[in-house]
Amino acid sequence: MKSWRSRIAAAVVVGTAAVTIPLTAGSASAADPDGFNLVGGFRDHHICQVEGKALLDEGLYREFQCRWNSPFWEVWVR
Q: From 4, 19, 28, 30, which residue has the greatest number of CB atoms within 10 Å?
């Protein structure tokens, strides 16, 4: 019989893979023809604007857009 420690470790590995694989696949394909890349999503438009502005202030990107993709406002940058 397996110990609880090995069962928990196996569950963590499976759970991590279940989250990592969709996020990795989604980010690789999340670009549009204008060169914008998807970097995040929020339920509130104001928070989307604040986060996009913060990315500009950090000098990481030169432009951002908040686009509605139900149920989230997505932050797109370039």
A: 30
